[in-house]
Structure formats: structure tokens, C-alpha cells
């Protein structure tokens, strides 16, 4: 009698574990694609100018916090290297970003306000990246 009860519990436990794990694997494989928008700015080393990137749209397969974090890091590195390498401008180490977010209009308005504030408050020269600013995200 005990053997049959034990077997029944074991089968039930295995079925429950299988159900739970199959649900977790399905959830882990689900994708959450999104288009995210990001831009950034970096001050020149002499603090007389700020270089602004355009708003860039990036399609991601899985919109998670980890993906957004990697996107921000890659964009920050690209902007800093682009401004110092392609544009030949000596820049500060820190790059300020806005995004990644999924609302392009919010990012565009934020960028316009940031440019205006930089020009009026800090009296910095506003510099825009060139037309060959092509950031690609490696997911």
C-alpha cells in the first residue's frame, strides 16, 4: 500500500515539476521585440562645447532591462569614440544619455530642451555629429 502511495506522489511531483519547468522555459524563450530610441551628448574637454548625437532608433528582439543597459553602454562608447575619432574633438570621459526608451516623441522633445538649456544656461557651443553617425547595436 505504501509503495503505491509513494509512486502516486512521485508521479504527481514529477508531473508538477515538469509543468512548472516547461512554463519557465516557455517564458524564458518568449521575445518582447521593441523599437527603442536613444541619443547622447558629450562635452568638449575645454568645456566650451557640447556634441549632440541624433536620436537613433534601435530594433531589439527582447526589450529587457539587461538589453537596455547593454544598448546604453554600447551607444555611450560609440558616441565617445566617434566624436574623438571621426570628428577629432577632444572630449571628456563622461557621456550623458537619454534613453533607451520606446517613445520617440518624448526623446525628440527632451533633446530639443537639452540643446536649448545647454546653449542658454551654460553658454556652450552646440555641435552636432556628422551625417556618417551610424550606430549599430550588437544584441
Automatic annotation (TrEMBL):
Highest taxon in the source lineage: Bacteria
Key words, A-Z: Signal
Signal peptide boundaries: 1-28
Protein name as annotated: Uncharacterized protein
The species this protein was found in: Epilithonimonas vandammei
Lineage, highest ranks first: Bacteria, Pseudomonadati, Bacteroidota, Flavobacteriia, Flavobacteriales
